[in-house]
Specification:
The strands form 2 sheets. The chain has a 33-stranded parallel sheet that branches. A 14-stranded antiparallel sheet has the order 3-4-11-12-19-20-27-28-34-35-39-40-44-45. The chain has a domain of 102 residues. The protein contains 5 helices and 47 strands. It is mainly beta and 703 residues long.
Length: 703
């Protein structure tokens, strides 16, 4: 209706403002190459009037509808008024398989799948908006913006919340090589494969929030029963007001949950022909050390890898003459089968081996986006039950909070959890020809190795609630005010409460890792006996951190406070402070209790490695093992987050003896401990390992 008259739409029973499903379903290719895509979009209902727009029915249901009036917009339901979103979904799937190569045949596959469900919320706009129902008013992802006043009224519950979007992504990739290929300095006749699987899934509300706004007027929410607001922004000018009232009232944050997992697998088996010399072996090792030195950010670790590379270059140079002598004897045909194969200058080997390596990780993140209330005057009242703020930022000139059974104000805890595992096993057996100078010999050799590790990390981060006002009034007939991970800042605070409870929360970080490895190798040379060696290593790390980052507190400005707590006040690592003169600060409580919170930062690392040959451990090898233990450390730090009330606040209590142990220094109440850096822990363990390798190299150079 483009005119100025009234637009009136009514139904005897239900008025359904539904969305029409539109979209496409496209399929391309098949077999080894295909791409499928489907999108289910919506064509929403729209009602627009140049004058008043009025909707009336027993029940009104909206799926992402747009309701617009250039005057007053009224939606009146005898029973329920439901303003939800319309779902838009998208599915995408793609697969490719390719084959290539002749001597080495390579088969690759790649699979991608993406799924998403996005909610398109209902939109309501007008100079004035009235949303009313005899029973319930519900809205998810609702955008309701009025030029003047916005009223939401229900005989039962009012539920305004963020909607929830969903996504799921899968990526798979495989590569298999069979035939002849290079591997580790040799040529392998066999097969190798790798598999990768990455998957993520999330439920998000941060991108589907509700908004209730007024450009020039007020916002009012009235519920006969419960008034619930979640993941929503309520905004008016500073000259206007927001009123929320119900038998019980809860305003809370929205939440995002994202899960990820990935798996990687590598496998190789086959017959390998390899030619090696001490010069090429050390040159390859030096190249790896130089590359790691360039990558390392820690200057000490960078220097250690530089030392290791220098030793490996020196060891390569030590053996150049021996290798040249052997190659010359081989060229001139002067080789003699003496059976001497100890530390050959040139070695040719044929071996059959099999190795497998797997890595996996899982993670979950839970994050919150606080609801916000911004206005001039904020009045929130729970007539019969509790008033609860959980994950809210509120800002007003004057703020009045009232709950008959109490007022609970609590922050929200973001969490990240991660689990990783790795495992590898491998072995080989074969024959070799070893050459030194003009002698050569034959032998059998074999090796086996295994490694296993895991790491777990869990972190918690608190987002404190923030309530800020020029004047704050908190009242409860039967309950008290509980501030849990919350900060209140006001120029003036007036309170009439049964109890007052303030609690600070700690951010925490826990990390634990364990890595063990072991290996054994042996050889039997024709005519000269044999030898064997074993090695083992382990690395452990634990980090335990807990610290109050932001202390719960009531911070009052120059106008002071008048707070009457009829029963008990309890401070748990929290503070109450004021900038006003003492005569302006009245704080009366029946009793007062307080506790401190102990913060901690602990780190424990253990790192060791040992190796032994058939001749036992000589003194220099023992020195090498001892040096590798330098990665062991245990550091611990403690501090206190103290409860405190500033000295300029007069405390009138029936238990004055409890005040003697109460700190009056609010500025130094929260002492910090240093948070350990996990990357530095890992660098320290790596440094210990490199020190052990450097000492082993030094033994080789010296002997």
């Amino acid at each position: 209706n483009d005119g100025k008259g009234q637009t009136y739409l009514s139904a005897k029973n239900n008025l359904n403002l539904t969305a029409l499903s539109v979209g496409f379903d496209e399929k391309m290719g098949e077999g080894n190459h295909y791409r499928n895509e489907r999108k289910d979009d919506v064509e929403i209902s729209r009602i627009k009037g140049g004058g008043d727009v009025r909707l009336a029915a027993k029940n009104i249901y909206s799926q992402g509808a747009e309701l617009e009036s250039e005057a007053k917009l009224t939606a009146l339901a005898e029973n329920d008024l439901v303003l939800n979103g319309a779902k838009v979904s998208h599915d995408f799937e793609e697969f490719h398989k390719t084959k290539s190569g002749s001597l080495a045949k390579v088969t690759k596959t790649r699979f991608d799948k993406q799924q998403s469900e996005t909610q398109r919320g209902s939109q309501v706009s007008g100079k004035e908006i009235v949303l009313a129902a005899g029973n319930e008013v519900k809205g998810k992802g609702l955008q309701a913006i009025a030029e003047n006043d916005l009223l939401i009224q229900a005989g039962g519950n009012v539920d305004i919340a963020a909607d929830t979007n969903h996504f799921r992504n899968i990526h798979k990739e495989t590569k298999k090589t069979s035939g002849v290929f290079t591997s580790g300095g040799g040529i392998t006749f066999g097969s190798k494969s790798e598999k990768h699987h990455l998957e993520s899934e999330g439920w998000t509300q941060s991108d589907a929030r509700s908004t209730l706004g007024s450009m020039k007027g007020n916002i009012q929410i009235q519920a006969g029963k419960q008034a619930n607001v979640m993941g929503t922004d309520l905004i008016t000018p500073r000259t206007n007001r927001i009123d929320i009232e119900g038998a019980g009232v809860k305003v809370e944050a929205g939440k995002d949950i994202i899960n990820t997992n990935e798996r990687h697998e590598y496998q190789q088996s086959g017959l390998t022909l390899a030619v090696s010399t001490p010069v090429t072996d050390m040159a390859q090792a030096a190249y790896k050390s130089v590359k790691r030195s360039e990558q390392a950010a820690n200057p000490k670790l960078k220097a250690l890898y530089g030392m290791k590379a220098a030793e490996e270059v020196a060891m390569a140079a030590q053996n150049v003459g021996k290798v040249a002598e052997t190659l010359e004897a081989l060229r001139s045909g002067e080789m003699q089968g003496t059976g001497t194969t100890s530390n050959p200058s040139v070695k040719i080997s044929v071996s059959y081996g099999n190795q497998k390596q797997t890595q996996s990780s899982e993670s979950q993140s839970i994050s919150h986006q606080k609801s916000t209330l911004s206005t001039g005057t904020l009045n929130v009242k729970a007539r019969d039950e509790k008033l609860t703020f959980e994950g809210v930022d509120a800002n007003a000139k004057e703020m009045a909070l009232s709950g008959k059974q109490g007022i609970d104000v609590k922050g929200v805890k973001d969490e990240v959890h991660q689990r990783t595992n790795n495992q590898s096993v491998g072995g080989s057996v074969g024959v070799f020809v070893g050459m030194n100078g003009n002698s050569y010999g034959f032998g059998l050799e074999g090796s086996v190795k295994t490694a296993k590790g895991k790491s777990n990390s869990d972190s918690e981060r608190w987002q404190n609630i923030r309530l800020q006002a020029d004047k704050l009034i908190t009242n409860s007939e039967e309950g008290g005010l509980s501030l849990d991970a919350a900060n209140v800042k006001a120029k003036r605070w007036e309170a009439d409460l049964q109890n007052l409870n303030l609690t600070s929360r700690q951010d925490t970080e826990k990390y634990e890792s364990k890595q063990v490895s072991a290996g054994a190798s042996g050889s039997i040379a024709y005519g000269s006996g044999g030898g064997a060696s074993v090695n083992a290593a382990y690395n452990n790390a634990k980090v335990d951190y807990a610290q109050v980052k932001e202390q719960t507190g009531i911070h009052i400005g120059e106008e002071g406070m008048d707070a009457v707590i009829h029963n008990h006040t309890q401070l748990n690592g929290a503070i109450i402070e004021s900038e006003a003169a003492q005569e302006k600060n009245r704080f009366k409580t029946g009793s007062l209790g307080h506790t401190d919170i102990e913060n901690r930062s602990e780190i424990k690392t253990e790192s060791a490695g040992i190796s032994a040959g058939s001749g036992g451990i000589n003194p220099m090898q023992a020195l090498s093992s001892a040096l590798s233990l330098l990665g062991n450390s245990h550091e611990s730090e403690r501090s206190l987050t103290k409860s405190a009330i500033s000295e300029n606040i007069r405390i009138d209590t029936k238990t004055p003896e409890k005040l003697t142990a109460l700190s009056r220094d609010t500025k130094q109440a929260n002492q910090q401990v240093n948070q350990q850096d996990l990357s530095k822990v890992q660098e320290r363990q790596e440094m210990a390992q490199v020190i052990g390798e450097i000492s082993n190299n030094a033994i080789s150079i010296a002997t």
